[in-house]
C-alpha cells in the first residue's frame, strides 16, 4: 500500500491508501484541509484535535443532508424505504398472479 503525506491545517500525517487511489485520497485530504482551515478562521483559539472533530461532525452533517435530499422519505439514514416498499408490493403482486 502506498504511503501518502498529507497536510491538514499545517500538520503532516502519513497515511496509507489502496494502490491507484493516491490522487483521489490527496484530493479528499485537500478538501478536508480547506474545511478545517475555514472552520479555524471562524473559531479562534480552538485546539487542533477539537478542530478536527468539529470538522468531521460538520462534514457528517453535510453528508446526512445530501442523503436526505436524495431520499423521498425523510429519515435519519437517507434510505428510501418508499421505493423498497413499492418494489416489495410489485413482487408480491407478481407472485399472486402466478
Question: Would you summarize the structure shown here?
Answer:
With 98 residues, this protein is an alpha+beta fold. Helix content is 61%, strand content 12%. The longest helix is centred in the middle third of the chain and has 22 residues.
Provide an overview of this structure.
The protein has 98 residues and is of the alpha+beta class. It contains 3 helices and 2 strands; from the N terminus they run ββααα. The mean pLDDT is 84.
Helices, strands, pairings?
Layout: E1 3-8, E2 11-16, H1 22-42, H2 48-69, H3 81-97
Antiparallel strand pairs: 1-2
Give a quick account of the main beta sheet: strands, pairing sense, barrel closure: 2 strands, antiparallel
- The rounded distance between the terminal residues' Cα atoms is 53 Å
Topology as a string of helices (H) and strands (E): EEHHH
Radius of gyration: 21 Å
Would you count the extended β strands for me? 2
- Indicate the mean pLDDT: 84
Structural class: alpha+beta
Outline: flat
Strand-residue proportion = 5-15%
Biggest sheet strand order reads 1-2
How many helices in DSSP terms?
Answer: 3
Described by its quaternary structure, the protein is single chain
How helical, in percent, are the residues?
55-70%
Low-pLDDT regions: none
What keyword list fits this structure?
single chain, 98 residues, alpha+beta, two-stranded antiparallel ribbon, 3 helices, flat
Amino acid at each position: 500500500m502506498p504511503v501518502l503525506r498529507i497536510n491538514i491545517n499545517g500538520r503532516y500525517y502519513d497515511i496509507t491508501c489502496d494502490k491507484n487511489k493516491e490522487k483521489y485520497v490527496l484530493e479528499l485530504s485537500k478538501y478536508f484541509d480547506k474545511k478545517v482551515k475555514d472552520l479555524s478562521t471562524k473559531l479562534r483559539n480552538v485546539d487542533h484535535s477539537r478542530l478536527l472533530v468539529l470538522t468531521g461532525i460538520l462534514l457528517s452533517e453535510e453528508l446526512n443532508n445530501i442523503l436526505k435530499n436524495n431520499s423521498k422519505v425523510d429519515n435519519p439514514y437517507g434510505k428510501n424505504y418508499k421505493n423498497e416498499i413499492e418494489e416489495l408490493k410489485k413482487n408480491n403482486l407478481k407472485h399472486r398472479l402466478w
